[in-house]
Write a structure and sequence with these properties.
- The structure is a single chain.
- This protein has a three-stranded antiparallel β-sheet with strand order 1-2-3, with helices on one face.
- A hairpin with a 6-residue loop joins strand 1 and strand 2.
- By secondary structure, it is an alpha+beta fold.
- It has two domains: 30 residues; 56 residues, no CATH class.
């Protein structure tokens, strides 16, 4: 027969795992933004796929070329990211 002192470590371990899962979830919700230049499937131009805080992707902008979309990423993506987090 197991005594209550023998089951305490298992309960403590389970509690720690729940705490770590919550911490990981909080850290994941504030992950680095991701910006990728993509071409429209119909060939009409380019856009930037923006993913902020690990959420769903949004299409940003309407660019004539890959280089214009990448220029937007280089110059304006950080301001966009900050504005979206507020």
């Amino acid at each position: 027969m197991l005594s209550s002192s023998m089951t305490a470590p298992a309960n403590t371990t389970a509690t720690w795992w729940r705490i770590l899962e919550r911490i990981f979830g909080m850290a994941h919700s504030h992950s680095e933004p991701r910006f990728i230049a993509r071409e429209y499937k119909d060939g009409r131009g380019w856009y930037v796929e923006a993913t902020i805080d690990g959420g769903s992707a949004e299409n940003v902008g309407d660019f004539a070329s890959d280089s214009e979309a990448k220029d937007w990423i280089a110059r304006k993506s950080m301001a966009y990211s900050k504005a979206r987090r507020k």
